[in-house]
Task: structure prediction
Amino acid sequence: MRGYWHLFAIASSISIIAITFKSYFLYGLIVLWIYILYRRQRIQTFHALLLIGLTVLTSLYYSTTEVSTTIDLSQDSFTGTIPSPVERKENLTSLVFQTVDKTNIQVTYFDDDGSNLSQTWKTGADCQLQGIPQSPQPSTNPGQFNFQKYLKNKRISHQVILRDSNNLTCKGENALEKIYNTRNIGINNVNDSFSQFTSSWILALFFGFDEQLDDRIVTVFEHWNLSHLLAISGLHVGLITGLLYFLLVKTSILSKEKATSVIVIFLFLYPFISGGAPSVWRASLMTITAMTMLRFRKQGSVVDIVSIIFLVCVFFDKQLIYQLGFQFSFLVTSSLILSRKWLRRTSKAKLIVRISLISMFTLLPLQLLHFYYINPFAILLNIVVVPYYSILVMPFLFLLLFVSFISPNAITFLDFLFQSMHQPMLQIITSIDTHLFHPFVIGKIPLMYIWIYYGLLIVLFYSIEKHQKKLMVISVSTVCVLLLWLEFRPYIDEHGTVTMLDVGQGDAIVIELPYREGIIMIDAAGTLKKDFQTPSDKTYKQIINPFLYSKGIDQIDIMFLSHADHDHIGSVPYLLKNFDVNHVVTSDFFDKSMLPNALLQKTTFHVARGQSIVDYRDLSFQVLHPVKDMKNRNDNSLVLQARIGQLNWLFTGDISQETEQVILKRNPNLKVDVLKLAHHGSKDSSAEQFINQLNPKIALISVGRDNRYGHPAEEVLQRLKNSETPVLRTDRQGAIIYTYKDNGETGTFSTFLP
Amino acid sequence: MECVWCNKKIYPNVTWSTFLYPEKLAPLCHSCQGELRWIERADCIDCGRQYKDGAKKESNRCQDCNRRRETSQQFLTKNRSVFQYNEQLQPMITKWKYRGDYCLIEAFRAPVQEGFKTYFSDLNADTIAVPIPLSPQRLQERAFNQAEAIAQLLPLPTCELLKRVHGEKQSKRSRKERLEASNPFQLFKSTNKPVLLIDDIYTTGTTLQQAAEILIQSGCPEVSSYTLAR
Result:
């Protein structure tokens, strides 16, 4: 079997892919592959039989991935246990509650009454839960992160948000709790001993606890494919093992053999202490296996070790393979191992470049699938920052941790030293990000391109290994052509769309013209933090940005802003900052002070008045309002009328019935096909007369789920019902999408949620 | 599978080129295989000798071959060999040839076939392979003819056209003795097809030249030679 384990890992993963994506043709490929290997005597009969057996086994095992949902929702009290660590953050506690029939419920508790009861929530405890489990919110917009699926991948099907800590009563704990508790004690100790800055880094890099890292730094690292440095990855485990070994052996504390045993035991515990990310498990298990084999002078190949650990993981936990960290970790590790011929016998500098190149090329499709963009220059920063972490940051922090055990007094100086080294470095990285971050936004790509990409990548790595220059040039250029093709796909797409995003209580509408002739936005809602005061970038980050990126959009030609309310322009500052916004059009009563001046400099600002026309390509937006100052922000909303995809649209901002009257008076013959209902369906807007006069074929309402204003108003819905106008609403149906073709036919409306 | 030379287990090497399609296990392990040195370039176009690295190359024939040409003793069109006769190969050939470890031929199979493809791709289609024979006494001692074993690896028809008169072992004679010795071969059967002579080792080339001489004299149009080592 030695030297052949990887074949089993390949057969297993292809089976899982075939099952997951229902790409059953892959089975044909597997069988063909095994047959060829067997006929050409590359494998023996028992290999072939085992491979087929494993394929069948994996497929059967993975064909029943449905999360257990056998939960009786009629009751509101459940008995169960807490199987995994309890996460305690500042004023938030979250844990997984497992009922007797193995249904996992995510329990979240906002700890604002400071009760001590939550301290009895421990791993392994027997608990009683009071509450009504609910299905997690699925994503409601294209491109948005799917929290429901994310939880499902962790085998969690329901969630309960606790209002009162008495609703979860627990007793007892198990051995795991002691280990997890060590982690909490460690985290507290670090927080007590070090400055805030230093402890945030120690906690992230050694305890896998990244809560305290500065959000801005996390974003910057994400932009430059440096996130792997913030989570504990194989690199960290390797470095920690190396440092530990060095410390134990070089200081003659232990013999080499004993040091090995100590490290092996440590590595078994480490994943528990560090939060149990898949990459930590992978790296720890690999190091344990390698060290044990070395200890007993057994020879083995790394490929086999990684393959066996992959198979163990895949069969141990069905959901692991769907986790991004697991995919990243195994993909990078195996491609680096397969490239070892190219990585051997080369200078240190070249080695780092090569490792970064291999990692970048291998992870590119995953990066695209999850973030929709690539940053080709990230590799340059990686080449500098990865060695900086390996040589300076990690050993320095390790030393700090070590010193804190033996002489806590020396810490203050070392802590200061670390800050004066690391802070300037972070500043440099941040300023590079501000000036040089130009993502190559590609958007959501069909799965087929990913298979093509990986096929090409195998050819590329093959040609490098075999020194076949010609093949190498061909495969590299094909990869580039493929990426360019993906980038230019929208430019040959004859479809245009109008998307009303589900941004909760607010408006955000994106118009994409066919053949990428233009991107026009009408409003970009923002949210406020819990205090209803501080602006939050949540809507931008979670909805608007992922949507635009998933469409491959990094430039907005025209942005209409109806009026300066936060639920219409709250995300504009972030958009101005991160996108090229060519023109911003508002009414002349728009309160410009609501937007930062520095950002307005990046764009051309236009003021439109009633009866003016904004032309863009084949589109022309008729500005119907404001013609006069209505002395009210909502009523001064820009009202736009345009013919898009053979339909006549009216975008009304937040106008009230009073303004509707003004508009009707000036445009007595106004008729529309699609009416964006004013003010989220408020009862003060959309008068019966207005609706009847316009006679829309469909009405769209952008409104928040369970909003505190009671939008859309019952009266308004009744008026629409009376006029037999069908209604689509974002709170019920998620994003509303109108798709049309450039051929003169009317398009169709669809909604993100069924 | 074990290495035919050092008996260590052989495992497949898994890299980008082999992870989907494992390599066929070679009969020699990677370290034994690595010790064998291929003849990478024929510095002398006649005998296929490769000079030591850095040696000056004055003409495209070596001194020996030039001398043979001057005295009209050059009967071979060309000779080509697979490996350099080094410290790794010497004991392997000894064990194979003298101690009857016939299985070691497996270690040479692929290289001999590959070398044949590289050097003799322009060979006349009706060429026949003629192994250098052993005297009946020697054959009795060794149980097989190493030259014949090599010849059988090639995609050519093998014909025994020569026989050998028993004499002192070539390897026990000095260079001078070898060059002066009388021709130990007799013709068995003549041919009008081109011939590729096969032997295990090319040292001075005398044996092969003598065999070629007899063949040419009996009307053979062209004689080349191919050996495992030199």
Observations:
- The mean pLDDT of chain A is 90.
- Chain A has five domains: 5-62, 77-173, 178-299+339-441, 447-491, 493-751.
- The radius of gyration of chain A is 29 Å.
